[in-house]
Design brief:
The protein is α+β, with helices and mostly antiparallel strands and 102 residues long. It is 43% helix and 25% strand. A 3-stranded mixed β-sheet has the order 1-2-3.
Length: 102
Amino acid sequence: MTDVFLTASAEQRIALIRARLGAALSPFTLEIRDDSAQHAGHAGAAAGGHYTVTVVSAAFDGRTRVARHRLVYDALSDAMQRGIHALSINAYTPEEFHSSPR
């Protein structure tokens, strides 16, 4: 994914993130926002994009916040090496997502 990710358009990058997280976590809800434009000129911006993901998955049941984030990072591991500079993660179980205000 790394080489493909680096040469992909903004829309293709989101599609690649969606495919990876979808395959790894079978999410009920998956929202991906490209925040890269907000970080233009930032020292690390040249190293890759900035993204925010909201993932709702049963795979998070019984897992700590850190363990949930590891699952997301594992699914995107090669892109995290080169292509994604920053990733903000909101990881919920279905029950948490439906019962909490956002």
